[in-house]
Amino acid sequence: MNLLVNYELFLAKIITFIMIIAAIVIFFCSFRKRKNNTKSNLKITLLKDNYQDIKNNVLLSTMENFEKKIWIKKEKEKNKEKKKEILKNKEKYFKNKKKILYIIDFKGGLYAKEVIGLREEISAILSVANKNDEVLLRLESSGGVIHGYGLAASQLNRLRQKGIRLIVSVDKIAASGGYMMACVADYIVSAPFAIIGSIGVVGQIPNFHKLLKKCNIDVELHTAGDYKRTLTMFGHNTDLTRKKFCEELNSTHELFKNFIKEMRPSLDIETVSNGEHWFGTMALEKKLVDEINTSDDILTSKMKEYTLLSIQYVYPKKIIERFTSSISHNFSKILLKMFLNKNYF
């Protein structure tokens, strides 16, 4: 019995020691990788290659083994001939080189933190793009804080100021701050049932004053300036502070409306700025969007004329996140093997 206990203690020590060594190795590898990776967090993907790989995989899956060998051999010969042709006519090749369609994605949260990546992506595009090139933004956002989405719209406006055509595609939703971003585009495409609009401003705050008063708890709030604080969570809100709060909402709404009117002059702003939202087909009738389509159809229609280049900012993970994600991944693999061995599937 003592031998078994001692063995278990020895095994626990060995496992603990291995885990500590693994943690130290992961820490130093992550530190070294971060140090070497300080130059850029941008992931650049040539989408033509992705689409071609998918097409090839589908074709190959329908073939017998001997057909696959013949097909692969023919494709290699085609690629060799294509390279030879390019080398022979270098000047002609570079002269007739396709325009570039840069593809970026923005899936915005309440605080528009994704604007960090958007800024980097747009700066990268502006550093290399020609005036004939275009940008496609696949946008998905239900809006959020005013300053966050205001900055996101300003980032997109950088493309407009440089004369680079911007297309915004909305497959699911572009409402409130999301639509503020969309309206910067030269051309807005919406899926039939995407949610569009919600041009309005909302502000809400809970108030615990009555509850605190019932519990004999006082909250003191002192301000230098009459409107340093309007509505508060714990103090007594007056009609005067409520009125001021509503005035601020209305003035923000006016700024919102003026911005959209400037970006889309053809839009009858007064009829669409009551905070209401519409589905894509209805939004087209109200001129909130320019076309009903999906981002996938836009990409396939542009493939012949443009080189499709995806620009994606990769957010760096913290060391602890990398460590925990690695552990969870390995643990799930072990569990999967156990289930498979026991014929659970």
UniProtKB/TrEMBL annotation:
Keywords assigned by UniProt, alphabetized: Cell membrane, Hydrolase, Membrane, Protease, Serine protease, Transmembrane, Transmembrane helix
Residue ranges of domain Peptidase S49 N-terminal proteobacteria in the record: 3-156
GO MF annotation: an example: serine-type endopeptidase activity
Gene3D superfamilies according to UniProt: 2-enoyl-CoA Hydratase, Chain A, domain 1, 6.20.330.10
Protein name: Sohb
GO biological process terms, semicolon-separated: proteolysis
Gene label: sohb
Stated family: Belongs to the peptidase S49 family.
Domain Peptidase S49: 159-306
CDD domains: S49_Sppa_N_C (cd07023)
Location, primary (coarse class): membrane
Species per Swiss-Prot/TrEMBL record: Buchnera aphidicola str. USDA (Myzus persicae)
Residue ranges of the TM segments: 12-31
Localization: Cell membrane
GO CC term, one of those recorded: plasma membrane
Signal peptide boundaries: none
